Amino acid sequence: MNTLALIWLGLIAFTVMMYVILDGFTLGIALLFPWIKGSEERDIMISSVLPVWDGNETWLVFAAAALYAGFPEAFGALMTALYLPLMVLIVGLLLRGVSFEFIHKATKTSAHIWEKCFCIGSCMAVFAQGIFVSQFIQGFSRDPQSGEIVAGFIGNPLHIFCIIALLVGYSLLGSARLIKKTEGSLQEKLFTISNRLQWMLLSALILIGLFSPPTSSNAHKIWFVLPHSPFMVFFILTVTLLMVFHAIGIKRRKEQVPFPALVGIFVITYLGFGLNTLPYIVPYQLTFMDAKVDDHALLIMLYGASVLLPLLLAYTFYAYHVFRGKINASKKVSY
Amino acid sequence: MNILNALLLSRMQFAFTMSMHILFPAFSIGIICFLVWMEGAWLKTKNPVYYQIIRFWTKIFALTFGMGVVSGIAMEFQLGTNWAGFSKQIGSVLGPLFIYEVMSAFFVEAGFIGILIFGWNRVGPKLHYAATIMVAAGTLVSAYWILSANSWMQHPIAYTQKGNHFISTDWLAIIFNPYNLPRYLHMVMASWLSTAFVVTSISAYYLLRNIHTELAKTCMRFAVHVIIIFAPLQIFMGDIVGVNVYEHQPLKTAAIEGLWKTEKGAPTLIFALPSNKQQKNLFEFGKIPHGSSILNTHSYNGEIKGLLSATPSEQPEVWPVFFSFRIMVGMGFLMFGYAIVATWMLVKDQLFTSRRILFASQFLSPVGFIALLTGWITAEMGRQPWAVYGLIRTADAVSAVSTHDVLIGFALIIVVYVIIFGGFYFYFLDKTIKKGPEDVSVIQPFGFLSGDTP
């Protein structure tokens, strides 16, 4: 019986997706800091995520707990194999999180230190996530002596492109989110930034596509051998279409268009890579069937999740609803 | 000889990060329960001083809760990065408990924290109060799940072994582990007491300087009530926990008591220098005859198992357990003593004017947290060499990571933790306190009450 495990895997995939989008734009806003210097503008940017950021980050905590609970074997293997990048992620998120708390408590003279920490912490987190993505595309290997699962070589072009793609992608998400939340000259600046970044994202995605087949045999099968290629055509067509939407939205200054278009791009790309690795949960060493816990434990967790997850989504939506609307200098949030 | 191996480093790292982390959730639980009380009082009496109190303490809550969230992430990932063996073997027992913990904490963070902290002008007073209550409920429930996971590690029940894995046979039994309830109450009361001492400390600071006196008096009066009720209750609860510990983990009790030979009517030692190497106490001072038996078995001549009943490799390291327990108990009685004096002064209407008691109150702020930390050290070090008592050794729970990876990670963590939690949390806490509460007329609640539409 793998149905339950598959449902739980889907749930993990969903929470990771939620994290990528919600914390993606939060991290992205920090990544935009070097390009937006005005302290008033930076205040507005931070205010736009202040009420929701820790809720956003919690999706990651949820995903990790769900992986731990449903697939402890995979959790142990992945966390051990990715030890150092994970430490970078943790420290990065720590730095980012406390900077959030400290920025608006600090005086004008010391605030810039926390703004730097905010940006550096976010960069560290995105850097680590870029390594995870490329490891998943590239696959893991086994240590010939101990038989333990270990990460592959870090530092080939694929890793670099994945990190760049994620840096650019999150910045775009952040920018698109801010376009919705701001007005006037700041919004105009963000449109200009988005306009430049979208071409970088496109190039990075193409480069990842070009560099991944040789490193992973499985991807090669799915992307380039015939029975699967309709899927690839669908993938490329949708992403292209969404890219065009995004570009048009930016050009015509339609503030509602870029964010959903980008979310679409993230979801489709994520699904593409995700389906690519099935049935592996640690590519290409451990399948989800081998890593799962007993069905009874899965059932207990599914009961809880089926009640709580819809509630959580509803409350998340409600919180966003309460803090909706444009943010400007007079309507900044504070406590 | 490789002294700094991955196991020892991982244990040090976990102890370090855990000790830093636990302070924040414990303080959060305390503050949020305090806020529930005060906001209720405000809604009932409409006395603006209560409103001033909630706005001021919400600031401290926001800062503390944020620290708890970020430091908690490190805890979760370490279960895999450093303790993969542990995760792989008992993931299916503890996993569901963690999932429920995250869901309850999440429930709070996703929906209500934002409203609690930032929602003053966006929602009505009743909905705001509902959010405050939900946050309190979420933190309390969340703590329950974590405590039940830890209680299973202390006293594993309702499981079977399948190959290398442990799976649960009865979830309700694990969730409502009888071992857990007293420990949970002990922990919740510890966080209330710790917070109450911080509240009295800050209030005393204001009273000594004759600023914000109205707010300080209200806070301090409430906190002293909390302390006089819960300091004695906490000692009573600690006794229940102690009896339970002896029943299920006699060696932990032996380490607490510094008792090597099994004895009937065993004494309590006030001070000793236990040595695992020589398997005896190098120095003993202040024997209270039959003390140990009375405390742990509630009978004058009850038998207490000594450490020598197990081989040295099965014994916990005695000195940390022995000393941390004594510090905890010492703090407990210090709190009790303070409670009696402070209540007496309150009744005689001298609490807010006596500089001596205010001065003492100001410096007693860490007592609760010291007791809390040393209590946890007793519980966790006393369980060694087991990660799960009697089932999984800590040495088998560690991940197969290289020592230098752990060293690099640990170094990163120490630097960031010390700078951020050690330095800046206290820096900003200090700033918030020095700045003091805002004038009520400046922080009008709920805009629409004064004519604005939300």
Quaternary form:
heterodimer
Sheet/helix structural class of chain B: mainly alpha
Q: Give average pLDDT of chain B, whole number.
A: 86
Order of adjacent strands in the largest pleated sheet of chain B: 1-2
The interface involving the most residues is between: A-B, 66 and 73 residues
Helix count, DSSP H or I runs of 4 or more residues of chain A = 13
Cα gyration radius of chain A (Å): 20 Å
Residues in helices of chain B, as a percent range: 55-70%
Please list the strands of the largest sheet of chain A in the order they lie side by side.
1-2
| C-alpha-based Rg of chain B, rounded | 24 Å
Instruction: Estimate nothing, just give the exact number of structural domains of chain B.
Output: 1
> How would the global form of chain A be characterised?
globular
Percent strand of chain A equals: under 5%
For the secondary structure, the number of strands of chain B is: 8
Descriptive report:
- The complex is a heterodimer of chains A (335) and B (454).
- Chain A has 335 residues and is mainly α.
- Chain A has one domain.
- Chain A is 78% helix and 3% strand.
- Chain A has 13 helices and 4 strands.
- In chain A, the strands form 2 sheets. Chain A has a two-stranded antiparallel sheet.
- In chain A, a hairpin with a 6-residue loop joins strand 1 (141-142) and strand 2 (149-150).
- In chain A, helix 1 packs across helix 11 (258-277) and helix 6 (108-138) packs across helix 7 (157-181).
- With 454 residues, chain B is mainly alpha-helical.
- Chain B has one domain (6-227, 350-450).
- Helix content of chain B is 70%, strand content 7%.
- Chain B has helices at residues 6-45, 48-81, 84-118, 125-154, 171-175, 180-208, 213-248, 250-257, 291-297, 318-347, 355-363, 367-383, 394-397, 403-435, and strands at 159-162, 165-168, 263-264, 268-275, 280-288, 303-304, 386-388, 392-393.
- In chain B, the strands form 4 sheets. Chain B has a two-stranded antiparallel ribbon with strand order 1-2. Chain B has a two-stranded antiparallel sheet with strand order 3-6. A two-stranded antiparallel sheet of chain B has the order 4-5.
- Chain B is globular and about 70 Å long.
- In chain B, 52% of the residues are buried.
- The interface between A and B is large, with 66 and 73 residues.
